[in-house]
Each structure stands twice: as C-alpha cells, then as structure tokens.
Design a protein that fits this description.
globular
Amino acid sequence: MRTALVHGERRGSFYGVVLGVWLIIALYAILHDQYLVRIAPEHFTVYHLNELEISNPRLLAAYLALKASVSPGLFLGLAAWLAGRAGSRPKLAPRQIFCAVGLVVVVTELLALLAGGWVHFARVPLYPRGLYPELTLPLMTTQTIQLTCYLAAFLCSAAMLVWMVRKRRA
C-alpha cells in the first residue's frame, strides 16, 4: 500500500504539522482564557455569544477559546507547513516548527500581560475607547490583553514564517 504524498511529502507529516500547530494554539487559547475569565467573567458571559447556553463561565471561556482557535490555528499550521516544509529546499523538522510556534505563544502572552498590567496599574485604556465594551477596570484589563494578544500573535507569527523561509534558504 502506498502512502499518498502532499507536494512530495507523506500526507501524515502534512497533517501532523498542521494539526500539531493547531493543537498548540488551541491549548494556549484555552489556558489564556482561563485566567481572563477570573479577572472579568462578564468578558465571556455578557460580551460573547453563548449559543450553547453554557452556564459555567470557565467552561464557556474554554469552549469559546477552542472555537476561536480553529481558523487561526489551522491557518497558521498550513502556513507553517508551507514555510517550513513545502518545496524542494531542506525541510524544517516538525519539532523545529512546533518550537517556533511555542516561542510565538510565549512572546505573545508576555506582551499581552505587559499591556494588561499597564492598563491595570494606569487605570486607563491603552487602545481607542471604542474598542472596549465598557470602561470598568476588569474589562479594560481583559480587553487590552485580548487586543494585544491578537496583534502580537499576528506580528510574531508573520516574523516566524519569514524566519522559516530564510532558514530554509540558508
């Protein structure tokens, strides 16, 4: 029995990288939202759609994190596979890709925590007021953390993909 290939690589390797990256992102999102829900439960219970009518705020936060991780996690997994393994250049090992994604997660979270900490102590929003559902300190803190997280994740992921392409060219 032959193993199907995706651009010269076994299909299992392709799926392993894509799903592995998504799993890292999903676990990160769930853990990240677990401390946010303790700061401001209303961030999830009031300002997010609860289509399953989950009554436990921590479970709701975990569900929303998992749901929100699907598209970005799979997209980043696909982009990481393309940057790190597609084509004829030397391939990055899946472990290298996962470590790079882990570094993106750590840097993203540190930047988000710094921004949230600044808002918590300064007691003023970091971003334009229209990006906050309300200006109570807990919601300003959690919303700042989330907005910073999205921005930092995008920028750090882009930097990671550029690094992967350059590393393979060297």
